[in-house]
Amino acid sequence: MYGVFGGYTRWAVVFLIIFVLFFLFVPAAPVATATC
User: Fold this and answer.
1) What contacts 9, CB < 8 A, 6 or more positions away?
2) Distance between CA atoms of 4 and 8, rounded to whole angstroms?
3) How many C-beta neighbours within 10 Å does residue 7 have?
4) pLDDT on residue 2
5) I need a surface site. Which of 12, 20, 30, 36 has the fewest CB within 10 A?
6) Domains in the chain: boundaries
7) Which of 13, 18, 16, 19 has the alpha carbon at shortest distance from 1?
8) Which pLDDT does position 23 carry in this prediction?
9) How far is CA 25 from each of CA 3, 18, 31, 32, 36, rounded to the nearest angstrom?
10) Max CA pair span of the chain
């Protein structure tokens, strides 16, 4: 479980998921508000 980054690997994965969800949500927010 602990590889090269050690305990930071879990936080790197969590940050990556939030980062991807953020970039998926931001372009969709104006579209959702415009359609609604």
Assistant:
1) 1, 2, 3
2) 9
3) 8
4) 59
5) 36
6) 1-35
7) 13
8) 86
9) 31, 10, 10, 10, 16
10) 47
Q: Provide the pLDDT for residue 8.
A: 77
Q: What is the pTM of this model?
A: 0.50
Q: Three-state SS across the chain?
A: CCCCCCCHHHHHHHHHHHHHHHHHHCCHHHHHHHHC
> Do 21 and 15 touch, CB atoms closer than 8 A?
no
pLDDT digits (tens, 9 = 90+) for 1-36: 556 667 778 888 889 999 998 888 887 777 767 776
The whole-number pLDDT of residue 5 equals 64
Distance CA(21)–CA(28), nearest Å, equals 11
